[in-house]
TrEMBL record:
<dbReference type="InterPro" id="IPR008503">
    <property type="entry name" value="Asp_endopeptidase"/>
</dbReference>
<keyword id="KW-0378">Hydrolase</keyword>
<feature type="domain" description="Retropepsin-like aspartic endopeptidase">
    <location>
        <begin position="23"/>
        <end position="157"/>
    </location>
</feature>
<protein>
    <submittedName>
        <fullName>ATP-dependent zinc protease</fullName>
    </submittedName>
</protein>
<dbReference type="InterPro" id="IPR021109">
    <property type="entry name" value="Peptidase_aspartic_dom_sf"/>
</dbReference>
<feature type="region of interest" description="Disordered">
    <location>
        <begin position="172"/>
        <end position="191"/>
    </location>
</feature>
<feature type="signal peptide">
    <location>
        <begin position="1"/>
        <end position="21"/>
    </location>
</feature>
<feature type="compositionally biased region" description="Acidic residues">
    <location>
        <begin position="175"/>
        <end position="191"/>
    </location>
</feature>
<dbReference type="Pfam" id="PF05618">
    <property type="entry name" value="Zn_protease"/>
</dbReference>
<dbReference type="GO" id="GO:0008233">
    <property type="term" value="F:peptidase activity"/>
</dbReference>
<keyword id="KW-0732">Signal</keyword>
<dbReference type="GO" id="GO:0006508">
    <property type="term" value="P:proteolysis"/>
</dbReference>
<keyword id="KW-0645">Protease</keyword>
Length: 191
């Protein structure tokens, strides 16, 4: 009995002071910042890099650096209207993605997304996702900064980002190196 009480006390002490990470559903509402358009985002542990819907993707050079311009045409979940925005962002890197349909190279940019009450800056590969249900897919690089996923739930967190919201800025790690090529789970499985 004494050992049970001791084990319980040690377990409580080991968790004291450690806030539990929030649990997320497998689909959450998110806003693309600073634009503010609300989208459905699929939290996908099968993907390494996050992906966002983009059209008219063009690479160009600005002040001796590679940049990407693209157009995002999305359904704003808040208003129910189709909205559109042109982006020009520095190219972070290129990623090779393999799938059943073959292999292709995609540009990757750093973007900010609000989920719950926190803004996350993450890597997003750009791809035309107009035939997918979810215009934003959050991969493991983003999920490792968020928390565990409950696959039985959706839309667990209400959106609540404002000027005072914490921002989890992207920090490059050794996990950023692609191992061979990323598998592409976008063969209709995220519909």
């Amino acid at each position: 009995m004494r050992y049970c009480v001791l084990a319980l006390v040690l377990a409580l002490l080991s968790t004291a002071g450690h806030a539990r990470a929030p649990v997320f559903g497998w689909v959450e509402h998110a806003t693309i910042e600073p634009w503010g358009v609300q989208v459905k985002a699929k939290l996908d542990t099968g993907a390494l890099t996050s992906s966002m819907h983009a059209e008219d993707i063009r690479l160009f050079e600005r002040e001796n650096q590679e940049w990407v311009s693209f157009r995002a045409r999305l359904l704003d979940q808040r208003s129910g209207e189709q909205v559109e925005k042109e982006f020009e962002l520095p190219l972070y890197r290129d990623v090779q993605v393999r799938g059943a349909g073959g292999s292709d190279s995609r540009p990757v940019v750093l973007m900010k997304l609000c989920v719950g009450d926190t803004v996350y800056e993450e890597q997003f590969s750009l791809r035309d996702r107009s035939n997918m249900i979810y215009p934003v897919l959050l991969g493991r690089r983003a999920l490792q900064h968020m928390g565990p996923i409950d696959v039985t739930q959706t839309f667990v967190h209400a959106l609540g980002c404002d000027a005072d919201s914490p921002v989890k800025a992207y920090v490059s790690t050794q996990d950023d190196a692609d191992i061979d090529a990323e598998p592409d789970d976008e063969n209709g499985t995220d519909r």
